Amino acid sequence: MNYRSIGLLLCCVFILNSCQDEVLPKPKAQLRLEYPAGESKIVQTSAYSFQYNSLARIKDLKSASFTLDYPILKGAIYLTYRPVENNLVELVTDAQKLSYEHVVRADNILEQQYIDEDNRVYGMFYEVKGNAASQAQFYATDSTRHFLTGSLYFYAKPNYDSIYPAAVYLQNDVRHILETLKWK
Hints:
- The protein is α+β, with helices and mostly antiparallel strands.
- It has three helices and ten strands; from the N terminus they run H-E-E-E-E-E-H-E-E-E-E-H-E.
- The strands form two sheets. A seven-stranded antiparallel β-sheet has the order 3-4-5-9-8-7-6, with helices on both faces.
- The longest helix is centred in the C-terminal third of the chain and has 21 residues.
- It is elongated.
């Protein structure tokens, strides 16, 4: 065998081995978390009632202000009740100010007005996007006697990418609380 034949053979081997599928980087994976639906239960206080998710545990139900704890999701919805005593403007202002304290860390805050004429429930739902401490907040009132605020917090450093599935799940629970709220 001469050098020319060896060179031709090596070129053929090289060409045949180089014809393989194109190597592509793997796409980024998305974390898939699924949470059980849970059943609706009713909580009743001296001032109001609403339906809540059975996955939540009620903590400190001594008055109309208490916490719905979600141990599986490592989060909680804090509910604070105040009677309206000629201070509705102050209560609404404080609730709005609390929601907008997260604007420094939030990417966006979406406001959704809520009106239920039949049950005299008027309020606002705030969906907070980004690495803010609270991912959802609301306030509700009947304009004359009752005022309720709710805030969703997680027991972890706010990393929006990591808590996103749990945040969406609990935001739906917060909306359900607002939609089923009835004053006494």
